[in-house]
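Methods: example folding runs. The two proteins below were folded one after another, and each record is reproduced exactly as written to the output file, sequence line first and C-alpha cell line second.
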Amino acid sequence: MNNSNSDFTQGSIIKKLITFMIPILGALILQAAYGAVDLMVVGRFGTTSGLSAVSTGSQVLNLVTFIIVQLAMGITVLIARFIGEKKEEQIGSLVGGATIVFAIMSAVLFVLMVCFSRPISLLMQAPEEAIGLTSVYVRICGAGIFFIVAYNVLAAIFRGLGDSRSPLIFVAVACVVNVIGDLVLVAGFHLDAAGAAIATVSAQAISVVFALFLLVKKELPFKISKEDFCVNSQCRRALKIGFPLALQECLTQMSFLALCAFVNRLGLEASSGYGVACKIVNFALLIPSSLMQSMASFVSQNVGAGNEKRAKKAMFTGIGIGLTIGCFVFIFILFRGDLLTGIFTTDAAVVQNGFDYLKGFALETIVTAILFSMVGYFNGHDKTLWVMIQGLVQTLLVRLPLAYYMSIQPNASLTKIGFAAPAATMFGIVLNVIFYFGMHKNENSK
C-alpha cells in the first residue's frame, strides 16, 4: 500500500482529489460502456424490439447495481475511517462479515430476477413487442448476479484502502471482454438482447476473477482469518452506514423505473429514444459520480484524523471541479445531443426522441456537480440517514410527480419530462445547504 498516495490528510487537496478521482472516473466510464456498447451493438445489428428490451432491462439491472454500490459505500467509508484512526487491524472482520452478507443478498437477487423476470418486465410496462426479449435479458443478468455483486464489493474495498487504480484495471479487462462478446453474439450470431446480456455477465465474471487475483497479490494493511467470516459488529456498523444510502437508491431507482414506464406508454420509438438518452445521461453524470465516491473516502479519512477544515475544503474543491467540466458538457448536450443519440441507432425517430429528452435534462450536468459533492461530504461524515432523506424528498416529491404530470399531457413532451431531473436536483441543493449550515452550527455550539 502506497502511503503517500493513499494518505488524504496532508498535501495538496486538489492534486490528491484529482489523482484519486481519475481512476474512479475511468472505472465508471468503462462500467457505463457496458450498457452503452450493448445498446449500440443491438441498435446497429439487432431489432428495435431488442433495443427496447435492452433499454428497459438495463434499467432493472441498474436498480440492483446502484443499490449494491450504495450499500457497499459503508465498507469504503469505514475502511477509510479505520485508516485515518490508525486502526487497520479492524478491517479484517469488516471484510469477512461483508462477504457473508453480500453473498446472502446475491442469492436472494438470483431467485427474484430468474424466477420473476416476466412479471418484472410486465411491471416495467415494456412495449408488447419487447416483453419476451426484456424477460430474457433480465433472467440472464439475474443468473450472473453473483459476479455483479462481487465486483462492486471488491471495488468498495479497494477504494476504502485509498486504491482507485486497481478497480480501473479489472473493469478495463471486463470491458474489452464485453465488447468482444457483443460483437460475436449479437453482430455475429444475431442473439439480439440475449446476446448482450450473456456478454455483460461473462465480462463481470472475468472482472471478479481478475480482482481477486489483484487483491491476493496486493500488500494489505490488515489480516483476515476464518473467524472473520460472520455477521460481526464491524459488518453491522458498515451496514448501518450503507443501508440508508441503499434504501434511498432503491426507492430512487424505482422512481426511475416508474419514469421508464411513463415513457414506455408513449410508444416503442419513445421507449427506445429514452433508453438511448439514458445511456448518454449515464456518461454525462460520470464526473459528479466520481467526485461523490472520491469525496466519501477523502472526507472520511480526514474526519478520522480530526481534520474537519480540510474535509470542508475538499468539498468546495470538488464543487469547483464539477462545475467547470459540467458547463462544457451542458453546452454540448443542449445543442448537439443528436450527434450523441445518433451513435446508438440509425432510426431517425429514435434519434430525435432521445435528443428531445436530453434538451430537458441538460441543466442536470451543472447542478449535479454541486449536489453530488455535498452528498459525498455528508457520506464521509456518516450522515447517510440525511442523504437518504434528502434524496427521497427531491425524488418522490419533485422529480417523479413532475415527470408523471408531463407524461400525461395531451401532447406529452420528452423535453419537459427530462427537465424534471434538474428541477429535483436544484430543490435538493437547497435542502443540503440548509443541512450543512445546521450541522456545523450544532457542532460549534457544543
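Second run, written to the same file directly after the first:
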Amino acid sequence: MSEAVLDRNVKEHEKRRFARVPVRLPGRFMLPDQSEHSCISENISPGGILLNAEQIPAIGTRVVCYLDQIGRVEGVVTRTTRTGFAMTIAATVRKRDKLASQLMWLANRNLLGLPEDRRHERIAPRQPMTEMMMPSGARHMVRLVDFSQSGAAISSNIQMEIGTAVTLGRTRARVVRQIEGGFAVEFSRPIPAHELDPDTIL
C-alpha cells in the first residue's frame, strides 16, 4: 500500500505545500486506553508521520505522540505497516507552519552533517539539585546540568549502568549514556512543551 493512502487524509493544499522529511526521532505515543508505547519516526511532514513501533494500533485510532525535538502531536491512524503505522497530524495552520520550520532545520542539519543544536531544546534549571531514587530504593542528591522534554544530563560521581531505571524527583527515567562527570537519562514520559522552563521541577 502506498503512502498516498495517508496523503488523501491531508488537504490538497497541504499536500502541495509540505514535503515529507526522512528523520528518525525517538518518542512515545499514548492510546485512548491511556497505555503508552515507544516509537521512532521514519518520516514526518506537517500533515502526517510514519512511525516504527512494536505496538500497532488499529486504523482510525486516535493517538497522542511525543517526539524528541518536535514535542506533542495528535491525530488518527490512517494505515499500518509491518513495522508500525502512519498517522495524521491535527494542528492549526500556525502550528503546522512551526512544524514545517522545525523539519526544515532538521533536514538541513542532517544534510550538512551539523552537530545537534541544543540552544532551543535544552534548559538550565534554576534549582539544579534534585533527589534521585535508585531501583534499590536508595536515594541520592544529584545536580541537573540541563534538561529537555525527553531527558536530562546529570552531574554525579555515582557510577550508573546504561539501562538502569531511576526516578528524578517525581519523574521516572532510565540511563541512556555516560557523559563526562555524570550520565544522561531519558524520561519515561516527555514533559509537555508548555511546562518546559527554567522553573520546571522534575
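Comment on the second run: The longest strand covers residues 36-45.
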